Amino acid sequence: MIGVLLRGVLAGSILSGTLLLYATLGEVIVERSGIVNLGLEGILLIGASVAFAIASVTGSAYLGVLAAAAAGGIAMLLFGYLVVGRRANQLATGLAMMFFGMGVSALVGKSFVGGVIAGLPKYRVPWLSYLPWVKGSTLFNWDILVYLAIPVAVLAWWLLFRTRWGLGVRAVGESPTAAFAAGRRPELLQYQALFLGGLLGGVAGAHLSVSLTMTWNEGMTSGRGFIAIALVIFSKWHPLRAIVGAIVFGGAEALQLQLQAQGAQVSPFLLDMLPYILTLAVLIAWGGARRSAAPAGLGRTFYGTE
Amino acid sequence: MSAGLSAAASVRRVISRAPLFLRYLFIIALALGIFALILVAAGKDPFKAYADTFAYTFGNVYGFSELIVRMIPLLLTAVAVAFPARIGMINVGGEGQLYMGAWLASGGALALSGFPAWALLPLMTLLGFIGGAVWAAIPGILRAKKVVNETIATLLLNYVAPMIISYFVFGPWRGVESSSYPQSPAFSDGARLPSFFNTRIHVGLLFALVSLLAYWAIVEKTRWGVQMRAIGGNPEAAERLGIPLVLYMVIVMAIGGGVAGLAGMGEVSAIQGRLRQGLSPGYGFTGFLIAWLAGGNPLGILLMTFLFAVITSVGDILQITQGLPYSVVNILMAVILFVVLGRRSVRRASR
């Protein structure tokens, strides 16, 4: 019984954690450039609805994922136009993006409510997936986005900490003026970081609709965008630490589902609160340590140096 | 390209010289235009939708009264945002606070169903206020103690509150006569806020107007208002002047939440007459937009609330006549915000 529960939680935490990881990585890159995107929830919704719609129409879940990434990227360029190009307030623009995503996804997904799609194909790991304990669970029988999640996190780390581009992005996040003085172009780097964040956010939303649930429902991301924003704080703006965070938070969601599946004598609504309460609890526990790790220029508007 | 840009610049110049009223009219016209293009792209008829909305809201007395009914929760949730905003706190949790107010007020209504209205209604009002206030005090304390940013905390709590309601209407408070539908039993007559003139306009309107008036009076006419402005301007300096920063943050946030809780109380007591899921189609979030667009100005809040009551009616119309989900109206709200955000910064940057 405990073994089954453990296996279920482990398997579920990897599935739920994948989408959280993509979303968190995107937000880490964005926030490293000094911009807070509170509209991540909206980007996830756009990604989920576009991926499902394209997968329904074309029959290819992969095309759905690509389209979702593109849609996320484009939406973030719109966000970028406002916060970078027009120097608008980031929090208000982020919330506007959330509304935008809620509305656009409802419009896009409208004809696909109740629709059925094939979903992303799954591939077994040759030997591991046939181990006795693993057999009969989803462990080592994953779609390509799960396999790619950790490599993408490593790639994001490499981009941010081992390339000239990443150095520029982080410099802009600390002080756009100093980065400008050093010959970098803060606005361009921020646009690039936002676009990348949008691609990842779109993929995260896509994984929810074309792999996890294989359905489209209005508002189906149910706050995962905000959980991912909290995860950025939890992981101290570091892509590799985000992996741990995503698995832990994915685990909370998985535990909740497993307890329900095992017929625990707790109301499902109380269990549904678990991820949000846990997020808040983690933020409280991490509260003191986070300030030193945040990019110094986070959330401040760069008015240029002219 | 450059011709387009210079044309846009000259349009902008004309607009920025126009009186404020015309400027807002232009923003709304532009947003309606962009939203219309999106609807056309989706194969819908925006002009019919706009015309229907106009006929539905301004065409007869009942439609107009429904606008005022909708203004009640919007006004309250807008004040719930504007008040903490004075000290620089961003309360995006109006939705959750509304639900918690509704929940606690319902608890009172169900537990004391034998009470007469003159005793029960004030008690429910108080409970509604407390429900929202406690829910907002949590992020208030966390922010005041510099533990968690209030924006993210209020957003997260928005997701918890409706689940508490769901738990109660599916569980302990589930009505016997309505066992097929998850909702509480109907409230007793003593728990129903009275309505006026055969419409659904209810006493909650007074709550809303009094809250707005109190907001204006506190902010503009009292020593507290002066201190709040000092905190909003420069918290460190305010603290050095001896203003109790932590106390202000918690209390102001709690009062804001309490006002949002009154909106929830009004919805269950006057409109629904029982507790059920899905009480609010995002009133808390819309209230945030209203307060933000009005820049905290009380008269601005009143006008913006009216405007957003009309705009959310577009959502109803799209749902009823064009088979679109209500949430599509969120695009229109977002576009209005985009236009304002994109414009406002021009003026700031040119300064």
Structural write-up:
The complex is a heterodimer of chains A (306) and B (351). Chain A is mainly α and 306 residues long. Helix content of chain A is 71%, strand content 2%. Chain A has one domain: ABC transporter involved in vitamin B12 uptake, BtuC (Orthogonal Bundle), CATH 1.10.3470. Chain A has helices at 2-32, 40-58, 61-85, 90-109, 144-162, 164-174, 176-181, 186-212, 224-234, 239-261, 268-272, 274-293, and strands spanning 122-124, 141-143. The mean pLDDT of chain A is 88. Chain B has helices at residues 2-17, 20-41, 46-58, 61-85, 94-111, 117-144, 150-170, 204-221, 223-233, 235-240, 245-272, 283-294, 298-322, 329-350. In chain B, α3 (46-58) packs across α4, α5 packs parallel to α7 and α8 (204-221) runs antiparallel to α11 (245-272). At the A-B interface, α3, α4, α9, α11 and α12 of A face α7, α12 and α14 of B.
